[in-house]
Write a structure and sequence with these properties.
Layout (H helix, E strand, L loop, with lengths): L2 E6 L12 H11 L3 E9 L9 H9 L2 E10 L2 E9 L3 E9 L11 E10 L2 E9 L4 H12 L11 E6 L7 H6 L4 E2 H5 L18 E5 L3 E7 L4 H6 L5 E7 L2
Parallel strand pairs: 1-2, 7-8
Antiparallel strand pairs: 1-12, 2-4, 3-4, 5-6, 6-7, 8-10, 9-10, 11-12
Length: 242
C-alpha cells in the first residue's frame, strides 16, 4: 500500500533556529513514505549554506527528486519538490499567477509528476500557495484549470501547503474538482499541522480524485518532528481503485 507525505520544511530550519537537512531527512525517513511532496526548499542559497536541499534530501532518502524553483535570485533558488522511490516522470513544473500592487509577495509555483504504482500511473501535483487571499484565489483557479488538475487523466493527488483553511474560497475552488482526503475519511476533528509545536490550523491539504481510496491519515508528533520545521508532516496511506 503506497504512502504519501507532504511537508513544509521551512528551508530545513527548525523552531529552535537550527539549520539541519539531516534532521528533516530523519523525520521523513521515520514515516517510510514512497512519495514525498516538499515545500520551502532552498537550493544554492547563501542563507542556508548554498546547499541543494532537494538533492541532498533525495540522496539521504534514496529517492529521485523533481524540483521547481518558484523563485530565482541569480544563482539562488527557492521552491518545491516531489521525491519518489517509485518510477516517475516529470510532466510539468511552472509558476502560478500572482497579483500586482502588493509589496513583498513571493513567486509561487507547482510541480507535477506521474508516478507508477503497480499497473497504474498516479498524477501528483505539489504546490505552495501565497499568503494573500486574492492571490490564493488566482492560484487555486489556475491549479483547477486545464493546465493542471483539469489535464490529469486517472488517479490524481494535489498536495501541499495552501495557506488556506477549509472555510476559504481557494479551498472551495479546489474541492469543486477534487475531494479533501480528510473529509473523505470522515476525520473529526480534522488533523492539523501548523504550528508544529502546538498544531491548531489546517492549511496543509491532500486533495484526491475518485480513483484514490484513503486508508489512513496521520500527523507525526514526535519531539523531532515538532522541532525540525514550523509545520508537521501530513501522511496519507491509500490505494488506487480499479
Amino acid at each position: 500500500m503506497p504512502r504519501l507525505l507532504t511537508y513544509n520544511v521551512h528551508r530545513c530550519v527548525g523552531t529552535d533556529r537550527t539549520l539541519s537537512v539531516a534532521r528533516i531527512a530523519d523525520v521523513i525517513a521515520d514515516e517510510d513514505a514512497d512519495i514525498v511532496c516538499l515545500q520551502e526548499l532552498d537550493v544554492g542559497r547563501l542563507r542556508t549554506g548554498s546547499v541543494d536541499q532537494a538533492a541532498e534530501l533525495a540522496q539521504r532518502l534514496n529517492m529521485t527528486s523533481r524540483f521547481h524553483p518558484a523563485m530565482r535570485i541569480e544563482a539562488e533558488q527557492y521552491g518545491d519538490a516531489i521525491l519518489s522511490r517509485l518510477p516517475e516522470t516529470l510532466v510539468r513544473a511552472d509558476s502560478l499567477p500572482s497579483v500586482t500592487g502588493i509589496r513583498g509577495l513571493e513567486p509561487r509555483g507547482a510541480v507535477w509528476s506521474r508516478i507508477q504504482i503497480g499497473e497504474h500511473w498516479l498524477n501528483i501535483i505539489n504546490t505552495h500557495l501565497g499568503l494573500v487571499p486574492r492571490e490564493q484565489r488566482k492560484q487555486a483557479a489556475a491549479l483547477s484549470s486545464r493546465e493542471w488538475v483539469g489535464a490529469c487523466e486517472g488517479p490524481t493527488i494535489l498536495a501541499g501547503d495552501f495557506n488556506a483553511t477549509s472555510i476559504t474560497r481557494p479551498y472551495g475552488e479546489l474541492t469543486r474538482h477534487l475531494k479533501d482526503a480528510q473529509r473523505v475519511l470522515g476525520l473529526k476533528p480534522s488533523i492539523k499541522t501548523f504550528p508544529s509545536a502546538f498544531p491548531a490550523i489546517r492549511i496543509d491539504h491532500l486533495f484526491i480524485s475518485p480513483h484514490i481510496r484513503v486508508t489512513g491519515i496521520r500527523v507525526p508528533t514526535s519531539p523531532l518532528a515538532r522541532v525540525a520545521s514550523d509545520h508537521l508532516p501530513l501522511v496519507m496511506d491509500f490505494e488506487i481503485a480499479a
